[in-house]
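Long-time lurker. I teach an intro course on protein structure, and each term I like to show students one example going from raw sequence to a predicted 3D structure in token notation. This year I'd like something fresh instead of my usual example. Would anyone be willing to generate the tokens for the chain below so I can use it in lecture? Attribution to the forum is fine with me.
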Amino acid sequence: MAATAQLVKDLRDRTGAGVMDCKEALQASKGDLEAAVEFLRKKGLAQAGKRAHREAREGTIGSYVHHSAKLGVLIEVNCESDFVARTDDFQKLIQDILNEVDKAGDAASDAWLTDANGPVVALIKPVIGKLGENMAAPRVVRYAGQGYVGQYIHMGSKLGVQVEFTGVTPDIAQRDEFTTLVKEIAMQIAASSPKYVSREAVPADELEKERAIYRAQMEDSKKPANVLEKIIEGKLGSYYAQIVLPDQAFNRDPKMTVAAVLAAASKTLGAQIGVSRFARLRVGETTQA
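-- Reply from a regular --
Happy to contribute to a lecture. Here you go:
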């Protein structure tokens, strides 16, 4: 018996499962609604959809770094309570998602992660049914093949940082000075939350917006235009110090900038060490207003 639109609707109303799951259940049960409900319950899919409106602000940042340090992954997986986040089933789900990211390779993205017909959503649905909480995996960060990848996962796995370094040879990667540098830069990002890896990476429209604010603040100052522009550029220096990683004051020694720390490390290690990109994921950020 075909899965009619009305039967699919009735089954969705009963179970909250997705359209495709309902169609599969009805086909497997030959149109028997009660058997279809049982089919979905056995698969852990019944009621998953009905929980989708509930906020999932808790969860864990899952992580993986290949032994070569050329590949690293961060994944955010959310649930409703910290209790569920600490269960073996939820932790297994994180590992299963990391495995899917590994299989997907370059195709792994936020859109791939949240695809209703994709492998990650298929993994999550039965766990929702089993543990009784809404869950989601909204964000993934995958760096591969461009540099040395380091990570820092804050205690409790609610915050994770991934950093990619340039100029790192296999010999340098083994040195204690470099290992310390990786940890300190990652912890800097975790604590100070920079937005950009360089001044050049700051969008022009964002800078112009800041300039406009500074001009408005000084519109009654009666200073010459050229003087005002110099003041504005000076103020931008303070703005860069907030949002650009190399311009930030180094947390362990605020008299130094991160750029100065990288320069000192480069001198010690005998190579030009830089940061090409970074990511900072904190649990629940994507669900907050």
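Some talking points for your students: The chain has twelve helices and eight strands. Strands lie at 58-65, 71-79, 136-144, 148-153, 159-166, 249-250, 253-257, 274-282.
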